[in-house]
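Second attempt. The first submission of histidine kinase had a stray character pasted in from the spreadsheet, which I only caught after the job came back as garbage. Lesson logged: always re-copy from the clean sequence file. Corrected sequence (364 aa) follows.
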Amino acid sequence: MQRLFWRFFLVFWATLLMAIMLVRLTFVWQDDVHMRPPGFTMQPPHAELNMPPERMPPPFWRRPWLHLLLLLSASIVFSWLLARYIARPVQQLKQALAGLASNKWQTQLGPELTARRDEFGSLSTNFNKMATQAAEAIASQRRLLHDVSHELRSPLARIQILSGLAGQSPADAELMITKIEQEVTKLDLLVAKILTFSKLEDGTAEPEHINVDLADLVESICEDARLEASASQKSLWLQLSPVASIKGDPSLLYSAIENVIRNAVKYTPAYSEVSVNLQQHGQQLSLQVCDQGPGVPEQHLDRLFTPFFRAHSSHNGIGLGLSIAKRVIEACGGSITVNNIVHNSAIAGFKVVITFSVSSWSVQ
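This time the job returned cleanly.
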């Protein structure tokens, strides 16, 4: 870093020095009336003596060496300040990058750099954003390892216990085998969800784009979700309007919308209601899913679609459902937004809105 500073300094100083020399060579002090006493004429009174006129010494403040000294001093100070102005942020960026290289993912540049209104300020701001995203990605991976290991360990432990009970009690072997099959199904669903997210994330999954009757799709999902809701003393209300078909992948859309509706059923309290409303306005098709649950803290709304993020850590899951839903819906040309339902300045529920552009005006 010192080499960079001194290179800047020498370049700036050499440039200024050359400019000073050119100025001195261009504006050479000439003998004029200002360098002679008053009343002095160009023709001496004794021209016949042919003697050169006597030169009067210039004032101290007009001495050339003083000008050169002042200009050289000013050029050195200016070059040093300019080199420091450029080299100092580069040095801080170098230290910050070294921190990232040593796995210090919380490294951030201070306001001294981010407040600058030049390229270094923009670079520092982008660096802080990059470091924050990298820290969140690393934390998400660590949460993934923890959550996946926990989710896998629990059914595997139950399978081990059920296998031991089946061996000890042959009379209950059939019941134990049924429960083992249920745990295996849970494991299969978990692994499938992780693989689906991985394919959507790296772009290897290629969704189909065929005509989809979204009304039939939503109605089928709600029939299954209504059974789950009634078992928990909850109700599910469905309102379907005639809508046009859309282009998308039926299986992926089913999985994405099912996750949204089942989340609403899971988070809404007992003896409350989940409403699902599908309608069309012009060329926009809108699916709204509202619950009466506790909602999500405002500071977490922007992170709900972050992979492996869970706003409510007390609930089961690994935080992939909404991430998968967002990627599926966007791959099918739609969009998804989330908001709290606020009533009298208090959170009264949670709303998810999924929007598609219809592919034709043919109404189902």
